[in-house]
Design brief:
Layout lengths: L3 H7 L1 H4 E2 L2 E2 L13 H10 L3 E5 L4 E5 L3 E7 L2 E6 L6 E3 L3 H8 L5 E4 L2 E3 L4 E5 L5 E4 L4 E3 L5 H9 L5
Antiparallel strand pairs: 1-2, 3-4, 5-6, 5-9, 6-7, 8-9, 10-11, 11-12
C-alpha cells in the first residue's frame, strides 16, 4: 500500500479543487516514508506558497502571482486567476525575501512583480511597467537597470 505523500504526488490534479488542497488524512498507511519521497515532496512544493488565513494556511502556486503591493504593515497579493487580492499581515520586505528565489523583482518601494506577467515596458513618466490586467507601475530610478537587463534578455523582432 502506498503512503500519503506518494499518493499525493501521483494524483495532484485529483486532489486540487479551486487551489485548495484536500486533506490527506484519509490515506493512512503503516509504511515508513522513504528519504527519496521526502526530497520529491520538497521539489513538488517548491513552486507553492502557504498563505496564512483564519482557518489555517491556504496553498497557492507562486507562478500564478502577478504582483504584490505594500499597504503599510500589510501586503496585497494579486493572482492571475482571482478577481480580488489576498491581504496578508506581512511587510513587502518579507514577501520579497520569500519570492526572490522565484524570480520576483522589486521595481518600486511598494511593488514586487513577477516578470513573467509584464505586458509592456513604457518610457512615459520616467519609466513604467504595464502588467497583465492593465496595472501600470512606476519604476524607481535605482531599479531601472534591472528592467533594462530583463529587457535585453527578451528576444526582439
Amino acid at each position: 500500500m502506498r503512503n500519503d505523500l506518494q499518493f499525493a504526488l501521483e494524483n495532484e490534479k485529483k486532489l486540487m479543487f479551486k487551489n485548495k488542497v484536500v486533506k490527506l488524512n484519509t490515506f493512512k498507511t503503516k509504511e515508513p516514508i522513504k528519504k527519496d519521497t521526502i526530497s520529491k515532496a520538497g521539489e513538488y512544493y517548491q513552486d507553492r506558497i502557504a498563505i496564512p488565513t483564519v482557518e489555517g494556511h491556504e496553498i497557492f502556486f507562486v507562478s500564478k502571482i502577478i504582483r504584490c503591493e505594500a499597504d503599510g504593515n500589510y501586503s496585497k497579493i494579486i493572482f492571475a486567476e482571482n478577481d480580488f487580492p489576498i491581504i496578508v499581515s506581512r511587510q513587502l520586505k518579507y514577501l520579497e525575501s520569500v519570492l526572490f528565489k522565484n524570480g520576483f523583482l522589486r521595481i518600486h518601494h511598494s511593488h514586487l512583480i513577477n516578470p513573467f506577467f509584464i505586458k509592456k515596458i513604457l518610457k512615459s513618466d520616467g519609466g513604467q511597467v504595464e502588467m497583465e490586467g492593465g496595472t501600470k507601475i512606476r519604476i524607481t530610478k535605482n531599479k531601472e537597470e534591472i528592467i533594462k537587463t530583463l529587457f535585453i534578455s527578451i528576444d526582439k523582432i
